[in-house]
Design brief:
about 425 residues, alpha/beta, 7-stranded mixed β-sheet
């Protein structure tokens, strides 16, 4: 398995390189003393991130005499991990706690009453005062808080300053300037964008950026929440831009067959000018010893007010089947301590008062932007699983040129109608 840090499998792992030999201790099993109780937690961290999480477990066990076991499915992503959880929950082998993405990915567990309300726990420990409010909202359903948000992520443009310099490109401030930069970079023999279309979610980031621009925030939100028709000019235009970028090879040739988990390492190795990625890319950059002056980051320009970007929240949930909910609450509260967030080296924590990790200048910038700008929930957490999968299929057709933008918009609306009818 690759050790590269990706959007799907390694949030919370930034800075892992500094723990040295401790990274070897990354398999399953327990951390801390056996104590009077043992909790079971499931997640999808990389071995590097799991080693850091186990450090938190060890500190927790010292204080509470409660041990914790970790069952991690690294790199599985939203396409596999929720299914594993569902099987365990239905089979009576549910963990006490599990980590998951917010939005529509965790929603089925909430709807099925497989996780407990944390409203009383928020009041008991004063979590509202400790956590970023927008991220708490991402874990709230019908006014009830079900999850503890710990990871706030945003998707933005990361660029190589040396490639920009070679192509005579300045940092774009408008979308038109982005496309001019694409053309200049390509003319200079530099791949403008790195991307991987396998699984669909990486290329999706480009489409939702384009849709935020063509539709504007209000219509985009209605589209994400299937409150208006997808068979509309703004969707057609967004698909047309995506198709143009693929045709012009601003996205890598054969992008739909490329592995998205390799993008971060490729960018850190200087193989492309830009990547549309989250803060986790900076671990690869730092580990590759790329000088801070050789890269930068900016919010994808849309020309819209407010200026928004794609974001998502991840956190911890307590299963309804757990017989140890009180102990599980204690562990969740332990994670809200700044010292625990420092121990896990979570560079994009939702917990207030946690010092920034030294050397992660881009991540620090995104922490400020997350506080200053609203974000929209990333598309595959906004749409249902069936709709997200339908979108991925349509997207693949558009990128490969087998479906027109107009036909794609119509097909997406047809999928929406089928989803609503239950067919």
């Amino acid at each position: 398995m690759s050790g590269d840090i990706t959007r799907r499998g390694a949030l919370g792992a930034l800075g892992a390189s500094v723990i040295g030999a401790a990274l070897a201790a990354c398999g399953g099993g327990s951390s801390g003393s056996a104590g009077s109780a043992t909790l079971a937690m499931a997640d999808y961290e990389t071995p590097q991130a799991a080693a850091l999480t186990k450090k938190v477990f060890t500190a927790f066990a010292r204080q509470t005499h409660i041990g914790v076991t970790l069952d991690s499915l690294p790199g599985s992503g939203a396409a596999i991990y929720p299914g594993k959880l569902r099987t365990e929950l239905l089979g009576g082998k549910a963990p006490d706690i599990f980590r998951c993405w917010g939005g529509t990915i965790v929603a089925p567990f909430v709807t099925a009453h497989q996780v407990i309300s944390l409203d009383s726990v928020y009041r008991k420990y004063g979590w509202d005062a400790k956590l970023s409010a927008p991220n708490v909202q991402d874990m709230t359903f019908s006014g009830t808080k079900y999850g503890l948000p710990l990871y706030a992520s945003a998707v933005g443009v990361w660029y190589n300053t040396q490639h920009y310099k070679k192509a005579g490109v300045s940092v774009p401030t408008t979308f038109a300037e982005v496309e001019k930069a694409n053309a200049a970079l390509a003319k200079a023999g530099i791949q403008p964008w790195l991307a991987g279309g396998k699984y669909g979610w990486y290329v999706m980031r480009f489409f939702e950026w384009f849709l935020e621009m063509t539709a504007g925030p209000t219509e985009h939100d209605k589209l994400r929440n299937v409150q208006t028709s997808w068979n509309t000019p703004s969707v057609v235009e967004a698909f047309a831009i995506l198709q143009r970028w693929a045709r012009n090879k601003w996205l890598p040739p054969g992008v739909m067959g490329l592995d998205p988990t390799q993008v971060e390492a490729q960018f850190a190795g200087g193989k492309g000018a830009m990547a549309l990625d989250g803060q986790w890319i900076e671990q690869n950059i730092v580990q590759a010893k790329m000088p801070a002056s050789h890269y930068g980051t900016f919010i994808p320009p849309t020309g819209r007010t407010p200026l928004r970007f794609s974001g998502f929240t991840e956190g911890l949930f307590i299963t309804a089947e757990s017989a140890k909910a009180d102990d599980a609450e204690k562990l969740l509260n332990f994670f809200t301590k700044p010292s625990s967030q420092q121990l896990s080296q979570n560079a994009y924590t939702t917990v207030k008062g946690v010092p920034a990790l030294p050397g992660y200048v881009g991540t620090a910038q995104w922490t400020k932007w997350l506080a200053e700008h609203p974000h929209y929930v990333i598309q595959d957490q906004s749409l249902s699983t069936s709709l997200a999968n339908a979108y991925f299929s349509i997207q693949s057709n558009v990128v490969q040129g087998s479906q027109t933008p107009a036909a794609a918009a119509a097909a997406m609306q047809k999928a929406v109608e089928a989803s609503k009818s239950g067919s």
